[in-house]
Amino acid sequence: MSTQNSLVLLNRVFSLKDGFPFVLVVDSLLQSSYHLIQEFVHNCNNDIVYLSFETVNKPSYATHFIDCMDVTAGEIVKQVKQLSTTKPESSPLLTRKTLIIVDSLNYVGLEDLTTFVSSLISPTSIVLGVFHGDFKSSSTKNPNFPSHMTLLTYIASSILDVEPYHTSEIDEEEIDMEISRLKTPIIKALHSSMFKITLTNRRKSGRALTSRFIINSVNHTYEAFKETEAKISAEDESLLKDLTTFNLTTNTKQKLAKDQVDLPFMQAQEELGSYSGAIIYEFEKDDDYDEEDPYEDPF
Amino acid sequence: MTSIQEQDLVLFKDNSIVSDKLLSSSSSHLSIIAYTEGTQPTWFVNSLIENSLVGTACLVNKDLTKQTPKRSQVIYISFSNLLEFYTKACKKNGVDLSRESNFHFIDCFTDLFTKHITNPENASSQTSKLFSFIIKQLSMVPGVNKIVFIENPEILLTATSISSVELSNSLVKLNRLCRNLFVISCHTSPQIVDIHSKEAYDPNFKTSDFLVKLHQRAHLNIYLEPLTTGRAKDITGILTVSKGPLPFESSIIIDEKSYTYNVTKESNIKLYFR
After folding, report:
1. Which residues in chain B are contacts of A56 at CB distance < 8 A?
2. Cα dihedral sign for B116, B121, B122, B125?
């Protein structure tokens, strides 16, 4: 997919224009989904229903705030449905889709998860669910039951994976070590308003498209993320300069000549390639060929 | 180490420990004080109590000299210590907690398993009652500038049948009633924190799940750990102040820093930049 097309797609996801009934946001202790949610809110002119499992303060943008602590999944769905039925019929909000933000799907029981999400989805609403991907919870009843993450990624129409955007070199192994001890290292890029996302979008045909972006939630600008190639290539001859008094480098003419040299046995390999790795013994004129097999069973 | 200049402890960019902006904010915040065995945060917590009550922090910040009596209401909930422990410890900070009317102590240690939770194997309703009692006590404290400390609540997860979600929900309810909730918790890894733990029957599974959930909604993280290079005579440990996943209001900026600190035999604190 071209960069331009992927940016158009991202804008459509943010503005809830396409038919993505369930958008899953996966965040971590390195980069929270807070700024990404703000981006959805910035692009949204619709009603926002906020389902709070862990949020302490009611967000200013939430039209309705439902406290989901100590409430069963079924009761939450009932409360959300009640909100949609209490809308006045003449309201233009009926024609626009309501955004339902679930602050954390980690709190919904594994057995209720798919029913909960699918019950919230309706022709007039879009579900934006956050899942914290750090801790892999397991099913207590059935060890073979799929995890939260497996179920959610299976039913989501779009998945947004949030990561920090590092502009300088970092030791990822060390950061992972610290995070595994629940220690947040002091790195400017963590939980920053500028971050990286991986968008996996599932078309109706079943084809999934993946693109990566850098999001700046302060100026609301998005750009496609380009993977930077390894800076030091194997043939970087500038590294060999001024190391010794000998000439270790090659010029263009020498390089061209080097490339044209046929390596030994190349021809032989081409010929034998058709036998797919079989050992083929080619007899020479002085070879003694014996019809009898010395290892044959005499009886 | 004596040649290196001592530093003052600050948590926010306005050179404060418990910022005025935090106390005047209309929102509630969560801060986590994580420690490992061998780096008990008592000295740090005492300074936070002192700063919240009167505005000074005589052991860790020499610039904070201006006393503001009754700066905030401090409510301390402990699952691992008695009031006497803090009354005695805070005397070094020049604060007499027994005479401080703005200090309220809720003892969840003395009668925890004899009075409050008598049936640990089916503890959901009794734990819920305990937290309702705490919330009632908290609501009775006058004023809105409330700073709440809760020490080692994770003990309930290892000692009773309650789930990590139940405890997490109880802390959210507490958090809503105060300007800032400091959760003091042991993070020894892998005994208590093991985020790779996958099996529900592992003893650290519930605590890891709870602590990860807690960290995901934190505004400020404070981590006290021993020196990674090994033991040193003049260094007790490393104190790291870092931001959490949720930001404070735009005017409250965390001063992210890492200090090495030394708690001397006389309980004096020396802090140095790392």
Report:
1. 27-30, 172, 175-176, 217
2. positive
**A197 and A162 in a common domain:** yes
Rounded Cα distance between A157 and A35, Å, is 21
Local confidence band at B181 (pLDDT 50, 70, 90 cut-offs): very high
Which of A27, A138, A185 is the closest to B199 by Cβ?
A138
Secondary-structure percent of chain B, ordered helix, strand, coil, rounded to 5: 30, 25, 45
Identify the CA nearest to A87 among candidates A73, A72, A97, A77. A97
Cβ distance B154 to B185 under 8 Å?
yes
Name the fold adopted by B20-273: Rossmann fold (3.40.50)
Nearest chain B residue to A179 by CA distance is: B195
| Cα–Cα dist A204/A201, whole Å | 10
Binary contact (A137, B193; C-beta < 8 A): no
pLDDT of A93: 46
DSSP A13-28: HHTT-S--SEEEEEE-
SS3 assignment, position B19: coil
CA-CA distance, B72 to A148, in Å (whole number)? 42
Q: What is the pLDDT of residues A268-295, one digit of tens each?
A: 666 655 555 666 677 787 877 777 777 7
The yes-or-no verdict on residue A29 having pLDDT over 60 is yes
Do A138 and A258 reside in the same domain of the chain?
no
The model's pLDDT over B58-103, given as tens digits with 9 standing for 90+, comes to 999 999 989 998 899 999 999 999 999 999 999 999 999 999 999 9
Q: Is residue A176 located within the same domain as residue A198?
A: yes
User: Is residue A213, in this structure, part of any structural domain at all?
Assistant: yes
Q: Are B34 and A136 in contact (CB < 8 Å)?
A: no
- Cβ contact A27–B245 (<8 Å): yes
List CB contacts (< 8 A) between A140 and chain B: 200
Domains of chain B, residue spans: 20-273
Q: In what order do the strands lie in the sheet containing B103-107?
A: B103-107, B73-78, B146-151, B180-186, B29-35, B220-225, B237-243, B257-263, B269-273
Q: Do A193 and A256 belong together in one domain?
A: no
User: What digits encode the pLDDT tens for the residues A118-154?
Assistant: 999 988 899 999 999 987 666 556 777 888 899 999 9
- Give how many domains chain A has, as a whole number: 2
Query: A285 lies in a domain?
Result: no
Per the DSSP assignment, residues forming a β-bridge with B77 are B106, B150
Query: So what's the pLDDT on residue A143?
Result: 73
Mean pLDDT to the nearest integer, B245-260: 93
Q: Is residue A232 part of a domain?
A: no
3-state DSSP percent of chain A in helix, strand and coil, to 5: 30, 20, 50
The nearest CA of chain B is from the CA of A91 a distance in Å of: 32
The domain in which residue A213 lies consists of: 3-224
CATH of the domain at A9: 3.40.50.300
Q: Is the pLDDT of residue A65 over 90?
A: yes
Q: pLDDT-derived band of residue A229, with 50, 70 and 90 as boundaries? A: low
Same domain, A208 and A268: no
| Residue A257 in domain | yes
CB under 8 A, 24+ apart: contacts of A93-97: A93/A46, A93/A47, A94/A124, A96/A45, A96/A46, A96/A47, A97/A16, A97/A46, A97/A124, A97/A125, A97/A126
